[in-house]
Structure formats: structure tokens, C-alpha cells
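Supplementary notes (optional reading)

For those who missed the lab, this is the record we used. Protein: Parvulin-like PPIase. Length: 464 residues.
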Amino acid sequence: MTAAFGRRRRAARDFLSVNATFVSKLAAAAAAIGLLASAPGASAQSAVGAQDPLNLPEQFNMLTNPDPNVRRATAVVNGHVITGTDLDHRVALLVDASQNEISAEEMARVRAQVLRNLIDETLQIQAAEAEEIEIDRAEINQTYNRLAAQNNRRVEEMDAYLLSIGSSPVSLKRQIEGELAWQRLLRRKVAMFVNVSAEEVNELMERLNASKGTDEYWVWEIFLSATPQNAAAVEANAQKIVEQLRQGGSFVAYARQFSEASTAAVGGDLGWIHLPQLKDPQLETVVGQMQPGQLVGPIQISGGYWIVFLREKRQVLTADPRDAMLSLKQIQVSFDPTAGDAANEAKLQNFISGVQSMRGCGSADEVAASLNANVVTNDQIRARALPEQLQNIVLGLQIGEVTPPFGSVQEGVRVLMLCGRDDPQSESGPNFDELMAQIEDERVNKAAQRYLRDLRNDAYIEYN
């Protein structure tokens, strides 16, 4: 684990506000996210692959069916029954998010993993209840309703959508309950015992200030824990996840269902990190060489395997030009599909000439009217919100200049005119309290993984 992973814990605490990324996929709006990453590793040297402490023979004969997933479809966890319907509904969320057909072999692996996740979720809820931590149904419903609203759906529409994909509102609400209960339990049982000294925070701040002007990275992660005994199986599982992601699967959905990092609650979003926060030369090298949109993994780290997706990068403590707030006018002309090619070509050339004759934003409306073109004005649009192909073009314009025409006769041809630009201020970076919270959250996450392992070891689990 690394201090960078602190952002993931804080992100998990903000589950109520940002959890919509997952449901956005359920609402068919997260197609652009196909990334993975996992919890950080403090050392490139992993316990995975160490000498087998059980001294097992290399060759042996299995006396019974070696594939328990065939007959262990459901489970009873400390008396709580996980039914086949529970499993089907949760798997349906992932299948819908994958955006591509899942083979029968892959489906068996997915179901086995989702069942393990349901078992962990049940253990977390039971542990919270043992500490008299109860998540009020009204709070769960409020979160569910908020997710529906953030995805432009009424509650009834969200219910119908989940049912249409073979899942249910009950299944999603159960997942919300588990995440809220676990985070609340960790704050009570773990976070209060974590201490971070001022010297540690000041040292990290000095390292960040020394790296001003270098790159920082917006990272998404999935982490799968592994032991020497199951390392090969976990690595194979991670490879399968990466394959699904490369075929268009939703990173958010896979992170929520498979990742064992706290960022699973927010779809694996680790947030903006600085390479020194990784505290691992191997990981610094890997992330530092990645390009936006690149998926890498699985990477063997301390305690398991990490899958990382780089959403974006920018310079540390330096203003990003793409954060500039722009005032734009879009001038568009449409064409008659029934007109001949010659007529449309003449109209296009007339539009291009007319645009070139404009003298600043003050003349745009008048000239556009003479060209039978439409004008749409937006005074509050961030440069990074534009299509990537247009960002550098628009940021290179002076006030009153226009982009080259783009589009087609079929869809319409348009230009963008820059009428104003407010450049961002230089970033001050995280303050003392924010960095302290990151380090605290990192240590909480380490303790949380140990806590969950203890719950598994103490649990009574029957498979059906």
C-alpha cells in the first residue's frame, strides 16, 4: 500500500456523492470507462510466489470433483443465506456493464468471484451489526434515489431498468448498505487508533513541492489480494478481468465487483496522485511511462496484483490550460440532403468565406444571419469538456478567432469562435490536513484488509 492510496479511502467516505459512477453504467452511461487498478504496493517485492510454507507435494491425485464452483452456487454465512437469486441479480449488474458477450467459461469465473464478494459483503454487514451499527433504510433509499436522479431517472425508472437487465433494486440497495456499513465500522474500530506525526506530513509536503512542474496522474485501480498458495489463480483471474476491460467492459463495474481496495466503492477511482506518493520505484516507473487512456496490468505488488488505468495526467502544482473557462460561439450551417452536390458545395464555400469575414464576436450574429447559419453561445464551458481533437485548437485561438470548419454536409458544418477565456490559477496542491488524511487513510486501508481476513477466518460458511 502507498500514501497515494489514501485518496481511495477518502473517496470511499464520499460514497454518497460519487457512487453514481457505477449506476451511470447501469444507466448505460459509463461506456467510456474501461480501466482498472488496484490497491498500491509499498514494495515491488511481493510475498506472492514465496516458498510454499505448507510443504505440499508437486504431484497428487484429486479424490473428488476439483471444481467446487459447479456445486457451490450459493452459501450460508454465519446463518445468513445467500440465495441463487441474490447471486443472479448481482451478476446481472456486472454482465450489463461488461458491454460485450461473456463466454460460458468466463461466466463461471464471474459467478464464483461475485459469490466471494457477496460473502465478504455479508461478513462486513454482520460485523457492523455486532458493533450495533445499523444503516437506516431511509439512508439507503435516499442514496438510491440520489443515484437515480444523477442519472436522469426517476426512482420508478431506475427500478424498471434494473429489473429489465435481470437485477433488482433490492440487490443494488444491499450493496449500498454493505459499503456504508463497512466504512462506518472502519471509522469506529480502526480509524480512531491511527496516528500520523507532523514530521511525516511535512516530509511528504517537501517532496511534493520539490516535484512542482512534474507530471501527476489521475489513476483508476483494481486490487486483487493474493497469497503464495493462490497467487497463480489470482493472477489468471486478473488477466481475465483485463481481457474483459480491453473488450469494452466497464472499469467502474469490474472495480466495484472485484476490487478489494477501498476505492471499489467509487469504481476504482484513486484520484490525482503524484509519483512520490507511490513510494515504490516499480510503480513509479510503470505509471510514469503510461499515456492517458492506457490500461496496464496485472502488476504483482506486495499482497497481490494491481491493474491500473491512467485516465489523465497534468503537471504538479501547475495550472492546467484545459481548466480554462471559455466563452464560445458555435456557428453552424445545415444543408438540404435533397439538393445536388454542386448546390451544397457552393453553400459550404459561401459559409467558409462568410466566417472568414467575421471581425470578432460582435459581428458573429449578423454575419451568421446572412449565411442562414445558427449561433449557439456558451459562456461557461471548460476547455477539457470539448472533444480532445478540438481542445488544443481552441486553446491556441486569440479572442475573436474561429476554428477551421469541421463536420460534414450530412450532419452540418460548424466553427467555434473564442469570445472570452479565463485561465486557471496555479494549483496550490494539497494542504497539511489533506496530506495527513491521505496517510491516515492509507493505514486504515491496511488495517481494513487485515480485519476482513480475520472475519473470513472466523466465519462459519456452508456452500450449497
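If you only remember one thing from this example: The two ends are 36 Å apart (CA to CA).
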